[in-house]
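quick one, 240 residues, struct below
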Amino acid sequence: MIENKKELLTEIVVILIAIVFMAFILSLDIKWVLPTINIELKNFFLMLLYTFIMFAVFVGSQKLVAYALDCKTTTKLLSFRRYWFRPQDVLPFEFPVWFLLPLLFALIPLKGFEWPAILNFDVEPKTTRVKRRWHDITESDVGKIAIAGPLALMVLGIIARFFGTNDFTFYCLLFAFIALIPIGLGFKLLNSSRILWFFSIIFALAMLLLTQVQNTFAVVLTALIFAILATLAYYILYEK
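---
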């Protein structure tokens, strides 16, 4: 019980670090003519609210799917040690992708180049699943958990459009798209199903590019048709 409480506390701290750090990155105002870095307190608190909602939906949806599959996930900051395929190709430390990628993208002098996908997860079977004959976690299970976060963010972004919060919609769709890039969570989905991964990332990208279109139904329908056609082309040319 004590061990479970420690794991839960650690996970909460990790998520809070991610929320505050991402709010800081999103609220940065970098001017390159006369190099200065500013942060408006009002904008920071707004980004803090945005990131809290996005990360809560992102992590919560993954945990709900894991619960339905009799698994449990442990949220962690995006990092890696292995840099190549051989067993010896391992760094002596965890490379902090979660810290460096958002910082590097924040330095690009163009709005919309942020990298908000800084969380990953580990998954393990719950006791109820271990008792079954077939209890091993499959790649399909991992893929279902991985896709839950970006999909929930896309739905959240669509809902936000109806309330006129276009900035929040953009960040939700950006988060969904970046999360599907095959680093960390995106790699888990790619490893589970290339077709599902390809469809998901094309759909998220199309939604992101069409954010300025006023008609929400047109955005979703156009993105869906484009993703289906692109996935069919990919399947015929590369998978069939």
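The mean pLDDT is 87.
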